[in-house]
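Reminder: ligand-aware prediction takes two inputs, not one.
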Amino acid sequence: MSEPLGVALIGCGTVGGGVAHVLLAHAERVAQRAARPIALRRVVVRDPSKPRDPLIPRDIITTDISSALHDSSVQVVVELIGGTTVAKKVVLDALAAGKHVVTANKALLADSGSEVFEAARKAERTVCFEAAVAGGVPVIRALGESLAANQVTAIQAILNGTSNFILTAMAERGLSYSSALAEAQKLGYAEADPTLDVDGSDAAHKLAILAQISFGVAAKPHEIARQGIDTIDAMDIRFANELGYTIKLLAEAWTSEEARNAERGMRNKNNGQEPSSVPSSALRAPRSVALHVAPVLLRHTDLLAQVRGAYNAVLVYGDVVGETLYQGPGAGRMPTASSVVADLIDLGVGRAQRTFAAARLWSREGRGFTVEPPERVRSRFYLRLLVADKPGVLADITRILADEEISISSLVQHEAQEDGSGAPVPLVIVTHYAATGRFRKALEKINRLTTTSAPAVFFSMGD
Ligand code: NAP
Ligand code: HSE
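Here is what comes back for the chain with L-homoserine:
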């Protein structure tokens, strides 16, 4: 067997702890797959007094990042501390010191992918990041390697395990939003700052990475229209259910509206059971891609509606293959460690270095795609208002929608409680297709009505 591949683990929390465990508990298996031992040389943490996996030798635990990065017995630095400041320095310093890098840090890649990958190319080193998107689901390899013969035309994905866990717990167990979030945190799914999970940022970071691999675009945060699950009330989940829908936080990329409609229709018709045909739009090399993250109402029968808990799922449409689906645990200690260790094995074998060099990710070369402004994306919408129960209210709202050429598909209003309280009542409107920009204009006017007592809540419809 060849010389060991020496690893410095920077960060040994939820994910890092899992990685250390796999490397130490399954050392023989890992060595066989990598055709050489993978040796854990250093484990860098913030607080060395915290209890760690008993398999980790005490004498390799340190707080000294620099000495780990410059250790000559280390060939790979695994960055698992998170965030975009210290982590960025760790990654750039590691590359400058001639080490390969493995990271699960999607925020860092979405923010500074160009800089990080340029530094890697300059240093002739490799950056691996399978764990950065969809945790234990090997979607980076699927897109970058297995689907290499395709031009991807659309992606629809559940990319944030925490949000999906919260929505499932609210819908199925009747948990409140805050207790579901607390449970997700306890289970190690959430980011150190869980706002990133629930406001859609984490899913947007992951979508930016998928968009780079699939379309060669380096999307800036403002180019990804983003809405999180933090505006969803238990009553929205109930109304959606009543209408035959489940609410999911979806990250989506569409190369054209035609591709989107063809593929959505195709999925609903086939329900994933039959092979799908190539949409004609996919063959015409579209020039732009729309990227957005938002709660979407999916029919109960939709494949993605059935993805529960912290699971992620990624539907990818390729112009050669048609529709493919990748699904599995999207967050948590061991699923994420599974992807990190796979990257280490690929580096050990020498595969990762070749793939990295060929892919030229985040280079200036692009592939002719631009990011489409989110206002032009068209959708059907679910709109939930709290309105005064009196004559003329509905007429005011429908007039505003009509002024923006938005037509109504269905409407739900339950009879008000006869308690004489005059409390506002929920009114739910589902629209036909409308441009996001015009819908938002209508919302602004509706929110100014004196008869609406809280800002309108809206989500797009998946069909
Ligand atoms: P975590 O549990 O908070 O662990 C962070 C680790 O980094 C801890 O060991 C901490 O040390 C160490 N650390 C933080 N700041 C440090 C510093 N300045 N110097 C040295 N060590 C420092 O985080 P995590 O959940 O494992 O996430 C790590 C990364 O993986 C993040 O980028 C996250 O987005 C990504 N990720 C997480 C998941 C998941 O399910 N959790 C899934 C996919 C990707 P102490 O232990 O001493 O506090
Ligand atoms: N906080 C992230 C999530 C971890 O919940 O999906 C996996 O990237």
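The first strand starts at residue 5 and ends at 10. The two ends are 55 Å apart (CA to CA). We will return to this case in the review session.
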